[in-house]
Design a protein that fits this description.
It is a single chain. The protein is of the alpha/beta class and 231 residues long. It folds into two domains: 119 residues, Rossmann fold; 94 residues, Arc Repressor Mutant, subunit A. It contains eight helices and twelve strands. The chain has a five-stranded parallel sheet, sandwiched between helices. It has a four-stranded antiparallel sheet with strand order 6-7-8-9, covered by helices on one side. Strands 10-12-11 form a three-stranded antiparallel sheet. Helix 6 packs across helix 8. The longest helix is centred in the middle third of the chain and has 15 residues. The chain is elongated, with a radius of gyration of 20 Å.
Length: 231
């Protein structure tokens, strides 16, 4: 199991790593909300353990943006000292799957994590994305179209995942840039180069084009036409 811990209490982070890595799980950690959001939206995690009171961006905002802007349904357990009912309601409304108040016992967290994963595995936390005849397997990171394997560079694969999760809705350039580089995009229009490579990979040899440029807005991935007969 891959877990992301977004927590600024280094002692708690160390305890979580010791406890879960002893059982063979892999953990990553982020000490602030901005870094945590970037990792959560880029990485393929089974679950996220999220503190509420964080530097740079609080946990509720991290969760809101993860759900709304990045269309992520990764299971999230909030870990916080805020134990009042209004806080718990706010956490669940922001998209938390469970809410555990500090201090807590690690075996209780483990049981809650198992319960959340058992519930969410059947709710659409799909490892396979599909738009038309284009498929992306998030478990193996393999992409194919009409049954033919596609070779994608990591940046193109990440852009494809964001576009497929949002399909058929449009995705803004800002959101695509954030998916690749967070809040520090490179100079120049690197996104255009990556989108060119992505279009060449997924649309080049096919009659129906799936990737559409929306001037001054961004891009969208959708089936909007059919091949002409007799050509």
């Amino acid at each position: 199991m891959r877990l992301l811990v977004i927590e600024d209490n280094l002692t708690l982070v160390a305890n979580l790593f010791d406890y879960f890595e002893a059982d063979g799980h892999h953990l990553d950690a982020a000490p602030d909300g901005v870094t945590g959001l970037h990792l959560a939206s880029h990485g393929d995690y089974d679950a996220v353990l999220l503190d509420w009171m964080l530097p740079r961006m609080d946990g509720r905002e991290v969760l809101r943006r993860l759900r709304e802007e990045h269309a992520s349904d990764v299971p999230v357990i909030m870990l916080t000292a805020r134990d009042e009912l209004p806080d718990k309601i706010a956490g669940f409304r922001a998209g938390a799957d469970d809410y555990l108040t500090k201090p807590f016992d690690l075996p209780e967290l483990e049981v809650r994590l198992e319960a959340v994963l058992a519930r969410t595995r059947g709710r659409g936390h799909s490892r396979m994305l599909q738009v038309g005849d284009l498929r992306l397997d998030l478990s193996t990171l393999e992409a194919s179209r009409a049954g033919l394997p596609l070779h994608l560079y990591p940046a193109c694969r990440k852009l494809l995942e964001v576009l497929m999760r949002a399909s058929p809705a449009a995705v803004t350039r800002d959101r695509l840039e954030y998916a690749l580089w967070g809040e520090d995009p490179p100079d120049g229009d690197m996104l255009r180069s990556h989108m060119y490579e992505l279009r060449r990979s997924i649309d080049g040899p096919f009659a129906i084009k799936l990737l559409h440029n929306l001037p001054r807005i961004g891009y969208r991935l959708a089936v909007v036409g059919a091949p002409s007969h007799g050509n």
